[in-house]
Amino acid sequence: MKLSINGSQHGVDVDPRTPLLYVLRGELKLNAAKFGCGLGQCGACTVLIDGEPVFSCVTPVALLAGKQITTLEGLGTPERPAPIQRAFIEAQAAQCGYCIPGIMMRAHALLEKNPHASAADIRAFLEPHLCRCGTHMRILRAIHRAQAEMMSANAGGSG
Amino acid sequence: MLALAAGVFTIVAWRPAMAPIAAPAANSFDPASIKRGAELAAIGNCAVCHTAPGGREFAGGRAVPTPFGKIYSTNITPDPKSGIGQWSQAAFQRAMRFGVRRDGAYLYPAFPYDHFTLVSDDDDNALYAFLMTRTPVSAPPLADRLPFPLNIRLLMFGWNLLFLHPGPYRADTAHDAAWNRGVYLVDGLGHCGACHTPRNALGAERADLKFSGGEVGGWTAYALNESSPAPVPWNAAALEHYLRDGYDDSHGVARGPMAEVVGDLHAAPTQDMHMIATYVAEEMNHAAPERDAVVQGVERQRERGQTGAAAADSQGNALRAVDTKNDEGAVIYAGACAGCHEGPRALPYGGIDLMLTSAISGPSADNLVNIVLYGLPAAEAARASIMPGFAGAMSDAQIGALARYLRVRFSDKGRWTDIAKSVHDARSRARVAAASHPVVVEPPSAATAKQAHNEAQH
Questions:
Q1: Considering the entire predicted model, what is its pTM?
Q2: To 10 degrees, the CA torsion angle through B201, B202, B206, B208?
Q3: Do B388 and A60 touch (CB under 8 A)?
Q4: Which of A23, A95, B77, B344 has the fewest CB atoms within 10 Å of its CB?
Q5: Residue of chain A whose alpha carbon sits nearest to that of B328
Q6: pLDDT of residue B432 exceeding 50
Q7: Boundary (domain end) residue, out of A46, A73, A100
Q8: For B292-332, how does the pLDDT look when each residue is reduced to its tens digit (9 = 90+)?
Q9: Nearest one of A106, A102, A92 to A36, comparing CA atoms
Q10: Considering only residues 99 to 138 of chain A, which have any Cβ-Cβ distance to chain B shorter than 8 Å?
Q11: Residues of B whose CB is below 8 A from A58
Q12: Are A63 and B386 inside 8 Å of each other by CB?
């Protein structure tokens, strides 16, 4: 079947019941999304489907015909990181970093949809993510930093 | 003539205000009465409706949707201006028994005084002692959104004539004290029928269909009588466990509004929970001899590990073939659901065997669709059963295909005809509303310890 990932079409020959995560990592070597629990309970595998954050470990590819998949690789590159990626680097928000790609994807989705999300909105929206290193405060700082950058970029663009 | 009739109605329906009082000092109440009141408030789930999402407990402001319009719960903290601080014990008792406010205005039956009327004087007084010793919160009531003429509270006089049977509860001497205690709690303060009994056009519970199942906020409240759809019939022990701990191995996890109810029942006395469970279980089982065959069928299939591929009917013999390989719903189930629902972890943290859940054997797809879309949300700072929601991953058509497949594979009931409507309705409700029911699962001992800890800190 064909999957549309980060704007490109990828033909994959897999059982339609296969979780998207396995296809991303095993077939396409898109390794940003991580395998954490495999049960949709930790958030490490989060990617966007048509802009909505989903757990790719419990999303069979059968669900994805005609839908746009975005992974962390699709937001930016090391040379040209997206605001959310730059903010996480600047705030040094990662300790082991395993949970961070998923958190960045969900935070990105929230800020795209609701640029004025409050601190409480952000905390509530990130509820599905676990971080065992305990960098929560840095993660929140990074998201606020990205939010400020995205808002000033928008203001600059329209002004 | 009309004016005269209206005049007579007003005179007959009018209720006097009761004199305001200065809020009694907390130490004027007997501590034992306050404690008893706390337990009763848990059984009555007062906090569930009288607390706004994210708001202060008992300060009101939660929107209660009714077919007639939106009614906001009131502030029942002892704040003199915006709460019940000026209410005497007699005024509180009148509100509970007759649905009349301290100032004489009628309350709407969204406040289930048609049930609370059964509460005894002593229990009313204990509830009063508990509420009057809470922290006062200044939270002015929000204006209800009801169309004319329903915004005229005096009309409730007529509703009360038709549907209010004033208490308190009088014991049925044909039954023993335990049974009577169960009825008193279930039909009175517990107001189970408010959700689990269907309502007539005037919004009153249909006495002839008691416990036949109802609807609340887009969730099905299952029948609690002999038409209970539970694949394995409830018994008192299972029900008591479910009500106390929020789940039962043979029935699954409380979700939706029921999660809030059981969240409160942690604080209810064991003895009372036992009476409640005993009475309700009796209501469910007294007229369904064929249920034994059902449970045997379910057990046989589970023993064979044949959850559905060759599903049995209610007699446990006829087989129904399901294409578990190529059906769209089967593929989705295998990829999205089976990992947990056929996994090795037991409830409440593992997924239930879908043969056992009323979400699939129930009368409509509403609850199943709510859960598939929004999952079981995590509870802040508490252990809970959680399930990821699939609102972002599945289209309406895919959810429909999944629901159709699950119904055929995991139940012996006929096809649902209204899945698309269930999906449309669930999508149109705010995610927040559908997901604001965290399921807290804690052993009662831990909950009690936490409560004691909190109290020690105050």
A1: 0.89
A2: -70
A3: no
A4: B344
A5: A62
A6: no
A7: A73
A8: 666 677 776 666 655 444 444 444 433 355 677 789 999 99
A9: A102
A10: 127-128
A11: 335-336, 339, 388, 390
A12: no
Give the gap in angstroms from C-alpha B340 to the nearest C-alpha of chain A: 7
Q: Which two tokens stand for residue A103?
A: 């958190």
Q: CB contact, 8 Å: B386 with chain A? A: yes
Are A66 and A89 found together in one domain? no
Asked if A63 lies within 8 A of B392 by C-beta distance, the reply is no
Cβ–Cβ gap B331/A61 under 8 Å:
no
Cβ of residue B204 closer than 8 Å to a chain A Cβ? no
How many Å lie between the alpha carbon of A60 and the closest alpha carbon of chain B?
Answer: 5
As for how many domains chain A has, the answer is 2
pLDDT band at B349; cut points 50, 70, 90: confident
Note whether A63 contacts B388, CB cutoff 8 Å.
Answer: no
Expressed as residue numbers, the domain containing A62 is: 2-73
Evaluate whether residue B236 is within a structural domain: no
Q: What percentage of chain B exceeds 70 in pLDDT?
A: 86
Residue A78 belongs to a domain: no
Strand partners, B205: B199
CATH of the domain at B426: 1.10.760.10
- For the cut 70, the answer to whether the pLDDT of residue B443 exceeds it is no
| Single-letter code of the amino acid located at A11 | G
SS3 B91: helix
The helix-helix angle for B31-44 and B270-285 (nearest 10°) equals: 30
Question: For residue B121, what are the contacts with CB-CB under 8 A and spacing of at least 6?
Answer: B93, B168
Domain count, chain B: 2
Q: Which residues of B touch A52 (CB under 8 A)?
A: 391-393
CATH number at residue A99: 1.10.150.120
Q: Tell whether A121 is covered by a domain.
A: yes
- pLDDT for the residue numbered B445: 41
Q: Which of A3, A35, A39 to mutate to test the interface with B (most CBs of B within 10 A)?
A: A39
In sequence order, what DSSP letters do the residues of B400-438 get, joined into one string?
HHHHHHHHHHH-SSPPPS-HHHHHHHHHHS-HHHHH---
- Give B398's contacts in chain A (Cβ within 8 Å): 63
User: For residues A53 and A40, is the Cβ–Cβ distance under 8 A?
Assistant: no
Q: Do A97 and A146 fall into the same domain?
A: yes
- Given a cut of 60, whether residue B395 has pLDDT beyond it is yes
Kindly list the residues from chain A whose CB atom is less than 8 angstroms away from the CB atom of residue B387.
40
Rounded to 10°, the helix B236-245/B257-265 angle is 90
Per-residue pLDDT of chain A (159 residues; tens, 9 = 90+): 999 999 999 999 999 999 999 999 999 999 999 999 999 999 999 999 999 999 999 999 999 999 999 999 999 999 999 999 999 999 999 999 999 999 999 999 999 999 999 999 999 899 899 999 999 999 999 999 999 999 988 776 544
For chains A and B, count residue pairs whose Cβ atoms are closer than 8 Å: 60
Torsion of CA B363, B364, B370, B376, to 10 degrees: 20
End residue of a domain, out of B130, B163, B196: B163
Chain B residues inside the 8 Å CB shell of A127: 377-378, 380
Query: Which structural domain, as residue segments, surrounds residue B31?
Result: 2-163
Q: A90 with A62, same domain?
A: no
User: Nearest CA to B397 among B386, B409, B405, B407?
Assistant: B405
Q: Is residue B345 part of a domain?
A: yes
Q: Could you report the predicted ipTM of this complex, rounded to two decimals? A: 0.92
pLDDT band at B217; cut points 50, 70, 90:
confident
